[in-house]
């Protein structure tokens, strides 16, 4: 039986809502986790398919195929990838920047913004968000997910930056945070077609019911309904030409800072 990963943050809920809320038949197993956990499980083969960090595909070229037409992509602002800083971002050279261990893609995106766009080279430390508070040992900190949205409303830092907005200002392109990736084992291809059809139906259900879902899911994600609805409308859950362009641009910059080897191709399930 196929095991499908499910990111527990609210950004993954619309495309998976039909599955989670049992609006479409789902004869497989759903496994929940944060992005870095699901990346590891997908790599190990303990899950078969997952919306997984876009950088995971680039770091393990040849291991995965992508499900077409599916992504978690910010069109411009993203709200949930937040850099809080005691000084303006262009003054972070040699300062300490704390980066969450919860997302590999957001860490690489932040490095691109700092090192390429602003030309600064901070000292990086890692921390586990919701468990550690690195504010007393850093000048800036990166937070992701619903916690980032919550923090943005109460932050005491002098400066805060939306990384989706910074990327869009820099490139004019959307930013692909996650892709539905398959640990490419030949013996699941027959079941995979069935899963893909279910995912497309689940996504269609979520997009059609965003307003209703935001009202029903507010307590689930500890966010006001109007904030959830506004947040979900910042995303494209498709993977078309603009998303492809944004992804390949990201991979180009990631290779430039040495985070990955150059990406030769995008391999899709068909």
Question: How would you describe what is shown here?
Answer:
The structure is a single chain. 41% of the residues lie in helices and 23% in strands. The chain is α/β, with parallel strands linked by helices and 270 residues long. The chain folds into two domains: 3-73 and 175-256, Periplasmic binding protein-like II (D-Maltodextrin-Binding Protein, domain 2), CATH 3.40.190.10; 81-171, Periplasmic binding protein-like II (D-Maltodextrin-Binding Protein, domain 2, 3-Layer(aba) Sandwich), CATH 3.40.190. The strands form three sheets. A five-stranded mixed sheet has the order 7-6-8-5-9. The longest helix is centred in the C-terminal third of the chain and has 20 residues, at 189-208.
Question: Topology, please?
Answer:
Blueprint: E1 3-7, H1 13-20, E2 29-33, H2 35-44, E3 49-53, H3 54-59, E4 64-74, E5 81-85, E6 96-100, H4 104-117, E7 123-127, E8 140-144, H5 145-152, E9 159-162, H6 163-171, E10 175-183, H7 189-208, H8 210-216, H9 218-221, H10 225-232, E11 235-236, H11 241-256
Parallel strand pairs: 1-2, 6-7, 6-8
Antiparallel strand pairs: 3-10, 4-10, 4-11, 5-8, 5-9
Helix pairs in contact: 1-7, 4-6, 8-10
């Amino acid at each position: 039986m196929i095991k499908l990963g499910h990111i527990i943050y609210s950004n993954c809920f619309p495309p998976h809502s039909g599955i989670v809320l049992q609006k479409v038949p789902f004869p497989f197993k759903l496994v929940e986790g944060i992005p870095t956990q699901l990346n590891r499980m997908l790599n190990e083969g303990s899950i078969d398919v997952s919306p997984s960090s876009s950088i995971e595909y680039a770091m393990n070229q040849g291991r995965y195929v992508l499900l077409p037409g599916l992504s978690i992509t910010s069109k411009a602002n993203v709200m949930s990838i937040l850099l809080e800083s005691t000084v303006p971002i262009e003054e972070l050279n040699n300062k300490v920047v704390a980066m969450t261990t919860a997302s590999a893609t957001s860490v690489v995106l932040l490095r691109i913004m700092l090192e390429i766009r602003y030309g600064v080279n901070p000292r990086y430390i890692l921390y586990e968000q919701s468990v550690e508070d690195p504010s007393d040992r850093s000048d800036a900190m990166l937070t992701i997910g619903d916690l980032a949205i919550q923090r943005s409303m109460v932050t005491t830092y002098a400066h805060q930056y939306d990384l989706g907005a910074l990327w869009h200002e820099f490139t004019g392109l959307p930013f692909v945070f996650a892709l539905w990736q398959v640990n490419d084992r030949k013996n699941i291809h027959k079941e995979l077609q069935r899963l893909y059809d279910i995912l497309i139906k689940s996504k269609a259900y979520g997009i059609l019911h965003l307003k209703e879902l935001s009202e029903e899911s507010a307590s689930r994600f500890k966010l006001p309904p109007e904030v959830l609805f506004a947040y979900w409308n910042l995303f494209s859950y498709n993977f078309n030409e603009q998303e492809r362009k944004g992804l390949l641009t990201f991979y180009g910059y990631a290779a430039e800072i040495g985070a990955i080897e150059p990406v030769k191709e995008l391999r899709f399930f068909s």
